[in-house]
Amino acid sequence: MIDFGYGLTPSATLKIENVQNPRFEALHELEPDVVKCIACGSCTASCSAGCFTEMSLRRVILSLQRGREKETLPMLRHCMLCGKCQLVCPRGINTRHLILSIGKVYGLNEEDGR
Amino acid sequence: MNQNVVVIGGGPAGIEASRKLRDLGYTPILIESQPALGGKLTRWDRLFPDGVEARAILDPMLQDLDGIKYFTDTEVLSINRLKDTWVVKLSNGLSAQVRAILLTTGFDLFKAEKKEEYGYGIYERVITNADLEDWYKSGAPLQFDNVHTIGFVHCVGSRDEKAGNRQCSKVCCVTAVKQACEFKEKYPDATVYCFYMDLRMFGRKFEDLYLKAQKDYGIRFVRGRVSEVSEDIDGHLFVKAEDTLFGKPLKIKMDLLVLMAGMAPAASSASLARMAGITTGEDGFLVPRSIVGDACRASREGIFLAGAVTGPKTLPETLGEAASAALAIDQFLKTPVKQ
Ligand code: SF4
Ligand code: SF4
Ligand code: SF4
Questions:
Q1: Which domain holds residue A45?
Q2: Nearest CA to CA, how far is B272 from chain A (Å)?
Q3: pTM > 0.90: yes or no
Q4: How would residue B102 be classed by pLDDT, with cut points 50, 70 and 90?
Q5: Which of B297, B305, B308, B286 is nearest to B332 (CA)?
Q6: Ligand 1 binding site (Cβ under 6 Å of any ligand atom)
């Protein structure tokens, strides 16, 4: 193919209206509090893993809501389930439990070989 | 005693202050330019944060006007200082000479068509918070079919220097969340979005309403200001915003878009301020002696202010200020005129 010096890249625009998000629905059922997140970032700021890795629970939750879990699920590999995020979450979300539920619903264990 | 006090503006602030002045023994003369008293409250269906009917607040006020002389469909033609009194001339041919005037002219709803990029008045399925409230109040079926996805656009004409209003209108965040929940009550299968820059849920029970909107109603909150709206051939809307938490632009098809038009200074306040020679702020709202400690007195003696005429306010704040203004007027009128 002739190289014209430019190429088509997939649109970077989020398209959320068509997102049928059965896995998020399943997660919501298991963990109703997941929709209570106000994206304050306290969890990310206090995260033991966050200093050394890209782990951000806030981003994980948001990407699940937007149906873009592929971009953030691998982050969860770094979580040590220490529970510090739970201590600081102002919405009282049981974040440790949430992370475990995410693992269950999104099949984290197989995908990440843990 | 039975002294007259002129109250200009027959919304909740003007009515409440008039009732309080009457209770204190004065005869309020309440002037309203519209055909009926009640101001913008007449257009509300249910009020935040609890959903009480607006009627339940307004009707008892309207039934308690004994001892208040009120004139609807009436404009103020002039206000002039005569020694230590004010002479107010009205469009109905009457005039009043009083020591105290209270301005309760409230606010104007921002004209959403000024934000052309949102398409109000161009696209059929773009409506305002006031239109939606009218519809809730009418109890009529929705005039559009196939409404599956609906969005609320916060800060329309507020926090926007280009729209001429730098201020936050204070009540539209909670109103959007209230209206979003109400929409879900009527259409449980609809997907409802709120596009916000900050959510300003400052009042008692407001944050509870936000939590309920997330948890019980499944309202989806997207942090990002809507930048533009376009329409497809079927009349559906395409809304563009950045999901600023995600850090990506977002394009979404909507069946209905509600613009949260904010509070702009009332055009009538500016002309009354000119007539009375009192100060208007650079934001267009009238200026009390102190926003913090002396919120009801204007810069000139005998002119008092209450409600949204000095900036966006909630209904309870407005009613509270109306009562304070009545007390301030009472105190002023009890002080003998300096010779
Ligand atoms: S439990 Fe996981 S996400 Fe939470 S603070 Fe600890 S390492 Fe971070
Ligand atoms: S601390 Fe809680 S509310 Fe804040 S971003 Fe994390 S999960 Fe969400
Ligand atoms: S109350 Fe909310 S929607 Fe209204 S102007 Fe302020 S931030 Fe914007």
A1: 21-107
A2: 44
A3: yes
A4: very high
A5: B297
A6: A 43, 46-49, 55, 57, 79-85, 95-96
